[in-house]
Amino acid sequence: MSKKITNTELESIKNNYDKLKAGCLFRSLNKENREPENIAVGQVSKELRFLQRHSEYANEIERVLKELRITVEFIKECQTRELPTDITRQELLVYYQGIFLTLVHQMKDKVILLVNLMTEVDIPEKPSKENNISVFKLLQKKEGPLTSIGIYEDVGQWEQNNESSKIAFVLRKRTYHHHRISGLRYDKDYQNLGLTDIASQPSFRDQLTDYGKEQMDKLRKESTESLFSNASSKAEDILKEIEENIEQISSALVDFFKLPITNEQVAKIVNDHSKMLSSFNVTNRCSFDKIPEPHNIFLDATVKKLQKEYKNVVAVYLVGSLARGEYEEGYSDINIYIILDVDDEQGQASREENFFNIRVFTKTNFLSSSSKKYRIIAKADGLLLFGEDFVKDEKPKVGLFLALTLNEDILEIMDQSIKWISDNPGATVQEISKKSKQLAKRFINFIYGVVMSNKPQYTSSKAERVERIIEMYPENKKMLDILTKVDRNGVGEQESFRNMVEGFRPNVERNLKRMQEIRKQIIKQNSK
User: Fold this and answer.
1) Measured between alpha carbons, how far is 487 from 511 in angstroms, rounded to an integer?
2) Per 3-state DSSP, what percentage of the chain is helix, strand, and coil (rounded to 5)?
3) Does residue 221 belong to any structural domain of this protein?
4) What does pTM read for this prediction?
5) Backbone angles phi, psi at 397, to 5 degrees
6) Per residue, what are the HEC states of 4-18?
7) Are 157 and 165 in contact (CB under 8 A)?
8) Among 460, 210, 133, which Cα is nearest to 318's?
9) Which of these, 300, 246, 234, lies nearest to 72 by C-alpha position?
10) What is the CATH number of the domain that holds 349?
11) Do 414 and 322 share a domain, yes or no?
């Protein structure tokens, strides 16, 4: 055990407990920073939950400590507080003393559970399976670790049978107070005050001699001063003993576990955490300023043409590379979403005109769950060219759920490609090339979705997506090189197109299934 702390020393290290509390918090926060893929979808790993429990117990110690301090103040005020006529001051004192004893017992539980948890070798599967251990068993089971940390004797102060511990003495009183015969009401001063209460009643006092009255008044004064003064000083002494004990244990735990408490450590953790959380936000990098002037004029004319062609156009979005400033003449497509406010058309349709890909939605369909993918694309990678903005309230967050929302239809798209090949045996080289380029882009996006689900991040830039994929999965560089070439130039034969689809399917099926299974696990865990 570390040497007894003097009043001066206690003042100099009065922040040890605050350091422990802060250290536990920032250690768990630092763990969050290392598992953004879980945080992005609201999942908590077993290891993180374990560290969070340390912080929770540290906060519980603070709560009980505050309640102990409040109760000590109430004990000190018992002698002067105004009371109802049917409650005596000594009865109020016993009430607060009982609360004080209960809080000391609570503090024992919080301190021992925190120490036990921080010194566990194996992480409990669930918080409910944490060992609820007695002080005696903790000292037996973990004598070595507690001695190495330097808190074996400090923890021993909470063992009820420790005859040399003031804290243990109070714990024994608590046992008698709550489970056996409370000694509080059998205190000599308490009984004397009960006697003087009776003696002060007019019917009884009138029977006393002047000397008897004088003795009763003297006894009442002496017993009152003794009872309340002793109760107050004892409570203050025990509170100080507990505060010293917590300070000593806190100091040792902070040092042994090297908890992050310095300004530099805390600043880095907070900055990393802020950076991680901001990385979950999907940023729209599109701007009208990035669209070349000839295309701006062309887009204005296109919107007017679409308004004439379709009735009740309520919104037109430009999505993709042109709005991002990454458009390549002769290679990139211009993607347009049209939303119609009509009752006689259901769902959505798409059509292609030269380098235009136009997707038409009814308002009802665009706002439905089935079109969430397209709303997110419009929000993250689009510009409103005309009408009402239907995606202003969308708040996509990167991670597994977003990756699945954007890519879960990949098998359906592949099936449609195979069907297109079968239905169009006489397709031209140009038609096959365009279809294969579109699918190659979808494959790149799907692979990036796998990356995004493993390490939450988001970019709508094709070049940056390829860069991130190779950064995390360098073994896929050769495949990415092939897909990038197809995305740019396409393939000109049906057989090559079919081989491309069928060759990539096992990769898609394997990764999609894994992502869907993880989603199920997260939903199941979060529903508990």
Assistant:
1) 21
2) 70, 5, 25
3) no
4) 0.69
5) -120, 135
6) CCCHHHHHHCCCHHH
7) yes
8) 460
9) 234
10) 3.30.460.10
11) no
